[in-house]
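Sequence in, structure out. Go.
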Amino acid sequence: MIPPSVRRLLRPAAVLVLALITIGIPAWLVLVTSAKPQGEAIKPNLALPRHWQPGSNYRTTFDEGQMLRGFLNSILVVIPSVILVLLLGAGAAWVFARRTGKLVGAAYALSISGLLLPPAVITIVMELRQLGIANTRPGMIAVYTGMYLSTAIFFMTGFIRTLPYELEEAARIDGASSWKVFWRIILPLLRPVIATATIMVMLFAWSDVFYAFFVLGGGPDATMPLNLYQVASAALYLNNWHLIFAYVTLMSLPMVVVFVIAQRRIISGITSGAVK
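Output:
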C-alpha cells in the first residue's frame, strides 16, 4: 500500500506528466517548427532547428497570410458575440433565478438544453439563408450567441440564486425600476461569472473553424482560423509547415495571454455559478 505522503507527491507529478504529454509536446512541436527553414520543416519533429529563421517565417506569414484581415474579422465577430451572450444571458438568468413555476422551469430547461444538444449545422445554414444573413458577420454572430447562451444562463442563474433578494427589495423601495435594479444591482454582482463567460466564449469562438466554414464560407469576412484553413490549402502554404505553424502561433497568442491573465477568474466564476 502506498503511504499517504507518497500519494500526495504522486498526484501533482502525474498531473504535470499528463500536461506535458497533452499540451507541452504539441506546443513545443509548433514552436520549433515555426522557427525552421522549409527544408527542415517538411517532416515536423521535436528536434531543434539547425538553422533558425523565426523572423523570416513570421514576417512572411503576417505579410502574405492576410493575418491582419483575419484578426479584424475575428474581433468584429467575437466581441459582439460576447456582448450579446452576456447581456441576454444575464437578463434571462435573472428571470429564471427569481421566478418560479412550471412554465419558468420548462423555459429554463429549454434554455440550457444547448449544453447537451449539439447545434444542427444544416438547419442553421438553411435558416440563415432564409433570413438573408448567410455568409455574413451578423449571421456568424447570431450562431455564436445561440451556441454559448446556454452556458452563460446556466452559470449566471446558479450565481444569482445565491444573492440575497433583500438587495433588490431595498432598491425597489427606494424607487428603482426593474431596469435600474438589473443594471445597478445584478450586473455588478455578476462580475465573477461575467468574467468567466467572457473568457470561455472568446476562447471557443476565437478558435472555431467548423461553424465558421459553414456559416461564413470563406471570402473577405473569414476569421483567423478559417483564413488559416484557406491559406494552408493555397500554393504559398502547401506543405510549408514552418509557415502554417507560425500562423498558428500568432493566432494563438491573444487567447493565451487572455487565459494566463484571467485563469483564476475562470475557476472562481465556474465555482460560484455551479456549486454555490
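Check: The two ends are 36 Å apart (CA to CA). The mean pLDDT is 83.
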